Amino acid sequence: MLRRVVALIVALAGSVVIVFATASIASADCVADPVTGEVHCEEGEGGNNGGGNGNTGGSSTCKYDGKEIPCTGPGGSVWSSKYACWIGERGPDAMVPPDGQTKEDGWWHVCYFPPPGSSWEYMWIEAGEVGIDPVVLAERAIASMDLDPIEIGIVPESGANRAGLVGLPVWMWVDSPTEDTFGPITRSASEGSVSVSATASVSNIVWNMGDGTKVTCTGKGTPYADHYGKQPSPTCGHRYAKMSSDQPDGAYQVTATSHWVVEWTGGGQSGTIEFDLTTDPLPIRIGEAQVLTQ
């Protein structure tokens, strides 16, 4: 099958029309040399999609030759494992199908090839092979999960009549975890013949303790119980070195940022999307023990 069409000569009404392979390039991951047409790609950083109280943007990568590449290429083109290129815009109507093919069987599309030796060319793409980007379906599946930040479990507790003491252990944990606050949770999304399944889980939680300290904990943490007394948490804890009286409202503002990792597969592709969700600040008051003398 003919794969490379640099210049297609079509005889129309006794005249010769030369259709050159041209394409628009618009992508943060891939750029084309305006003279040579070579496409140079770098793995993207991922965008911000917003949502909840955190950043639900992320990056998504596909596999090629054992390496990770962006699933979306120049001009919004979509990576195809079958054709080993990003399938882009449709070729001009003046182009003709290869021998034995008709317009109902498919059409010429710009294919952008990954590095090394990045380039693009027109390739015959069979009907039904050009559709929605599976990454878009993965994002739809994530949206249907309706994920939320965790519920903070912490001792000392928050409240006007509650306070901890300098130097005593602070315990942090995920209170009443559910699939939509901690995972794992699986959802799918489909359009046409393309279906994508995505599974999301929290990989770690970063606790901002409000005193300039951040504590990264894996797992849900250990809920505090009275019988633990003054023991430190075995899984996720902190100690404040000074009182919170000089803080706004006299309290440290504690937040928990859960880092979500979503593994998705479908449409002949697979990838990973990562994002964060952060709780609203929770005020925690810390004082000092007073020694009474007579």
From TrEMBL:
Record's keyword terms, sorted: Signal
Signal sequence residues: 1-28
Protein name (database record): ATP/GTP-binding protein
Organism, scientific name: Nocardioides daeguensis
